[in-house]
């Protein structure tokens, strides 16, 4: 039972809280996962993690048959289930839901739920609670996959439902072989100097560092040094990890003057986020951050180039062309300089509201959809139709133009579709794709970081009486209510060169989030402050 006054709500990250209060919640999510498996007649995943939160927290989330997140129309049921006041109420809710969804509980067709956890000590007893929950539903079988990264579990669910091999070994094999394939297809003579062949990775003292140690033994042509793997006694996410590095813009623990100029990367606690960074000088702990927007730009440039090589005419019947729609998906939080850069390359850029589920859904509308958040969470999606065409085209080119540039471009795109985790953002597959592309381009991290200069930005939170008073439109870039606030924001933004500002209600607390950017840090700070004042005037405690 939850302590009185505690109310949980299922968001992008599932349920998260202090691990000590989660046992009954995880038991109930076990029931939910079992019902979802019966409803879809597919394999479902249940992951116990709190990602980049501190080690005393934990959480639980469900992976749908596609390997993606739990379908949004089941989220309200997840909330009611988690907040049911007593066992009797719980049983009533389940009976009512089973009837409404037409779920048969006769055990005639058994279904499987794959369970995994990250390295948090509390994961062990919470996993047991999940098993008990699943075991209480007839016909549901729990399979414990052990300690995994969140993306590994999502990958396994997707693979199992696609009828392919889905063990952890299969995951590592697929990543390492598609990476090798991409590296082998790099033009000769592009290898950067030897210094550039080394990559140092901060494992956030979590599961990602542990798994990267295994994966790196299977890679040729890439030397990876893993620090903060959790083995050295460091604490999960404490002064380490992608979330810390991206927000604080300082070196994580165990990095410093010895790393000046070297390519460094940081994973988050459950390895679904990735950022790169450079230590620019020995004199300070500041870093140059290469964030999710820059990773997105690198992926977009590479894929655009392969598509244009593929579309060059060769002596093959012209009707084999395929107008591939490549789409880049961002949220309003993406740095304006990155959006401008992508548009200048002639790419189609669209925006969605904040949240991975919206980005993923939008990216799936394209033949190739690439999405990333600045925090380093993102992936590339390939449509089934495009992959079918690409496979047929590759076979055809290997007959008539084997070894041609077109043939190689087709093979590279196929390798990317194998290497990238299409279920969810995956720091391990992401790091290998970044490394393969830098090798292919012959670029140093400094050259990559020079794509564009980020506009300075500032984020603030303003406490309000009722966050629902702000309603947004156009992917959260415009505040529709309260009336007049958007015009006032526009007037403030117009006072600063390259000024841009938006407000949105928080998903979890009674605050309004303010994001501002401009050509200088002072201007961005001033813009954020003046808009925060507006929010307070319109909605703050003073306004009532």
Give structural notes.
The protein has 544 residues and is an alpha/beta fold. 40% of the residues lie in helices and 18% in strands. It has 17 helices and 19 strands. It has helices at residues 23-40, 75-82, 87-100, 123-135, 150-161, 168-184, 207-216, 242-248, 292-310, 336-344, 356-363, 384-400, 405-419, 427-441, 445-449, 485-493, 521-539; strands spanning 15-18, 44-48, 57-63, 111-117, 140-147, 198-202, 223-227, 263-267, 274-278, 288-290, 326-330, 348-351, 368-372, 378-382, 457-463, 471-473, 478-481, 500-505, 511-517. The chain has a five-stranded mixed beta sheet, sandwiched between helices. A five-stranded mixed beta sheet has the order 7-6-8-9-10, sandwiched between helices. Strand 4, helix 4 and strand 5 (140-147) form a beta-alpha-beta unit. Helix 1 runs antiparallel to helix 2, helix 6 runs parallel beside helix 14 and helix 9 (292-310) packs antiparallel against helix 13 (405-419). The radius of gyration is 24 Å and the shape is globular. It starts with 14 loop residues before the first strand and ends in a 5-residue tail after the last helix. The model has no long low-confidence stretch (mean pLDDT 93).
Which structural class matches the secondary elements?
Answer: alpha/beta
Q: What value does the average pLDDT take?
A: 93
Sheet having the most strands:
5 strands, mixed
Principal-axis shape equals: globular
The counted number of beta strands is 19
- How many angstroms does the end-to-end distance come to? 37 Å
Give the strand order, joined by hyphens, for the main sheet. Answer: 1-3-2-4-5
Outline the low-pLDDT stretches: none
The total of helices stands at 17
The radius of gyration over CA amounts to: 24 Å
- Work out the helicity level: 25-40%
| Portion in beta strands | 15-25%
